[in-house]
Design a protein that fits this description.
By secondary structure, the protein is of the alpha/beta class. It has 4 domains: 86 residues, 2-Layer Sandwich (Histidine-containing Protein, Chain: A), CATH 3.30.1340; 152 residues, Glucose Oxidase, domain 1 (3-Layer(bba) Sandwich), CATH 3.50.30.10; 107 residues, Orthogonal Bundle (Enzyme I, Chain A, domain 2), CATH 1.10.274.10; 272 residues, Phosphoenolpyruvate-binding domains (TIM Barrel, Alpha-Beta Barrel). The protein is 44% helix and 15% strand. The strands form 3 sheets. Strands 5-12-11-7-8-9-10-6 form an 8-stranded mixed sheet. The radius of gyration is 26 Å and the shape is globular.
Length: 659
């Protein structure tokens, strides 16, 4: 069977979306291929899929042959038609300077005098910010093959040795992925690297060379170079950067074959500038990132995984210096401008003072917000405004707590479902929700029930082919039609409520019956758990206000639920009848439009009149220019990305003081 579609995945099937696509494809028994411009590749190979260079808005065909071919095609087509596929919110972390929810004061460029001084180098500005500190040279020795031809009787043993090395690298990466200390963004990168390590394109190429008589190390080096060259030849900057990932994975396999460990970054001094010709994303993701003041590399560019990791952790970085990086091997101190791509070796006193001043100014700005981490924002009348975090996985807990989140205003449960090739069990869900509740206790944690539709494929749920899945069988509509799935989640939430202040929110509500039917299911689940002797507790039930229908029946809805949470992202697009992912009508997706603001005010008025909490979990909740308006409407909870929390608290406190 086959079916064609237009790819809507944002920026196409690069590393993370390709990894997720392959994971989805591997969940089906059928052989699956993706075809573009007449070229077909296995949909179960990340490397081959990325090399197909599928771009956004291109036409492709999905072919499947096997017992579950229909299900495979439906799921994979749904994935390709989802603009956010593979780009989980937590994997797209940006540095504060890039965060749309913050108003970060621009830091001026270094003075021309400073950049014109001796010992200045210019590379690619890969991660914004300024840094100055001791140089930490990281130039591990190159690995060379043994350069000997194997005897026929040695080949089988050498293949076994190679396969064992690949398994060892995969095990290391699996161990890293299991650690809570790995951020969600870094987790996506490590997962992509692990896919490369397991891909038949690399392992098959290497094994073919070993069968031809090459020793394993020489075979890996050659295979990695061949595949990396394929990536370099593609007319796509992002895919070009994947060549570095292939080399990095090849190096890890070779080190295992040699019985060696790579040079560690564990001893990098506080605030040091990491200098390297090339550093694998695998190594950087495991490094003590909080101690690194900046990164300078000969290889890499703005789309490389090194750059993505640096940006996600707020580390200034200049990459792509080429051979110039060798001039830094003996440097004692380095000044780094990640905005303009400038690197200065052993800066003189004037340059040192210039950079130190800029670093200090940026630090003061951050510190000025950091003091609000533990603040409980109150208005002049004593009302507390809860500033909570929007998160989608347990990996984001640390960042939310570090920012001072007063609980979670939106926990997106769909990622828990999308991460697995099968529907998550009740026990798995209960453990996740319980961990979340414990981490933020006694603050509330609002868990949104499964919010998926045909645009978000999940293994185990077959969605119909819909002309407009955003207005179709999704959210609470799908859940109520699939009580086998919904009850499993509700039972898990009831069990988790024993461990903290769990609240549950229903998405895409447009009719009161959806609330009453859900309450009946909750009572049914509670009765079952009681009969089974399983500990559980009740939870507040609320709705996400994101449809015009919910706004218009808000007074009646308020009598049936414990709280409202306004989802401004979808509410805006539905009120304005403008797809928020369509750039042609992007200007219509403005939360400040009178129609949208009127809907928010109507919702708040209904909630306040009924005496229930009214909150907001859309992006607008973190906008300093709108917070005062929302609070005056009666909102007492605002939930946003962790990066926006401290500025939001500052804004609320300024309101209380009359500033």
């Amino acid at each position: 069977m086959e079916r064609s579609t237009i790819v809507r995945v944002h920026e196409g099937l690069h590393a993370r979306p390709a990894t997720r696509f392959v994971k989805l494809a591997k969940g089906f028994e059928s052989d699956v291929e993706l075809v573009k411009d007449g070229k077909a590749v296995s949909a179960k190979s990340s490397v081959k899929l990325m090399l197909l260079a599928v771009k956004e808005n291109q036409e492709v065909t999905v072919r499947a042959n096997g017992a579950d071919a229909i299900e495979a095609i439906e799921a994979l087509i749904g994935y390709l038609e989802n603009p956010r596929a593979g780009l989980d919110d937590e994997a797209e972390v940006q540095s504060p300077a890039h965060d749309a929810g913050q108003e970060v004061a621009p830091v001026p460029e270094p003075s021309p005098a400073a950049l014109g001084r001796a010992n200045g180098l210019r590379g690619v500005a890969a991660s914004e910010g300024f840094a100055i500190g001791p140089a930490f040279a990281h130039f591990p020795p190159d690995i060379a093959g043994q350069g000997r031809m194997l005897q026929a009787e040695e080949i089988t043993g050498e293949i076994d040795r190679f396969r064992a090395a690949v398994r060892a690298v995969q095990a290391r990466m699996d161990h890293a992925l299991a650690q809570d200390s790995l951020s969600a963004g870094d987790r996506g990168i490590v997962a992509a690297l692990r896919d490369i390590a397991a891909d038949d394109s690399l392992t098959g190429e290497a094994e073919g060379l070993i069968k031809g008589g090459n020793d394993a190390i020489s075979a890996v080096i050659t295979a990695a170079s061949t595949i990396a060259a394929d990536f370099s030849a593609v007319d796509d900057h992002y895919l070009n950067a994947r060549a570095d990932d292939v080399h990095a994975v090849g190096r890890q396999i070779c080190l295992v074959l040699l019985g060696q460990d790579d040079v560690s970054l564990e001893n990098i001094p506080e605030g040091a500038i990491l200098i390297a010709d090339d550093i694998g994303a695998w190594d950087l993701a495991r490094a003590p990132l909080k101690r690194i003041g900046g990164v300078v590399c000969g290889h890499g560019g703005a789309t490389s995984h090194i750059a993505i990791i640096a940006r996600s952790h707020g580390i200034p970085a200049v990459l792509g210096l080429g051979a110039q990086v060798n001039a830094l091997r003996t440097a004692r101190e380095v000044a780094l401008d990640g905005n303009g791509g400038h690197v200065i070796i052993d800066p003189d006193a004037a340059t040192r003072a210039d950079f130190a001043g800029r670093v200090e100014a940026a630090a003061k700005e951050r510190a000025g917000l950091t003091v609000f981490k533990t603040v409980t924002p109150k208005l002049a009348d004593g009302r507390i405004i809860e500033v909570a975090a929007n998160i989608g996985s347990l990996e984001e807990i640390e960042a939310a707590l570090e920012a001072g989140a007063m609980g979670v205003g939106l926990f997106r449960t769909e990622l828990l479902f999308m991460r697995h090739m099968h529907l998550p069990s009740e026990d798995m869900q209960a453990e996740t929700y319980a961990a979340l509740a414990k981490a933020f206790a006694p603050y509330p944690v609002i868990v949104r029930t499964l919010d998926i539709g045909g645009d978000k494929p999940i293994a185990g749920i077959e969605f119909p082919d819909e002309e407009n899945p955003f207005l179709g069988w999704r959210g609470i509509r799908m859940c109520l039609d699939r009580p086998d799935i919904f009850k499993r989640q509700l039972r898990a939430l009831l069990r988790a409520a024993v461990h903290g202040n769990i609240k549950v929110m229903l998405p895409m509500v447009s009719d009161i019956s959806e609330v009453t039917r859900t309450r009946a299911l909750v009572e049914e689940c509670a009765a079952e758990l009681k009969a089974e002797g399983v500990p559980h507790a009740t939870f507040d039930l609320g709705v996400m206000i994101e449809t015009p229908a919910a706004v218009l029946i808000a007074p009646a809805l308020a009598k049936e639920v414990d709280f409202f949470s306004i989802g401004t992202n979808d509410l805006t697009q539905y009120i304005m009848a403008a797809d928020r992912l369509n750039p042609t009508v992007a200007k219509l997706n403005d939360v400040t439009n009178p129609a949208v603001m009127s809907a928010i005010e109507m919702t708040a008025k209904a909630g306040v009149a009924a005496g229930i909490m009214v909150g907001m979990c859309g992006e607008a909740a973190g906008r300093p220019d709108l917070i005062a308006t929302f609070v005056k409407m009666g909102l007492t909870e605002l939930s946003m990305s962790p990066a926006s929390i401290q500025r939001a608290k500052k804004t609320i406190m300024a309101m209380a003081s009359g500033d």
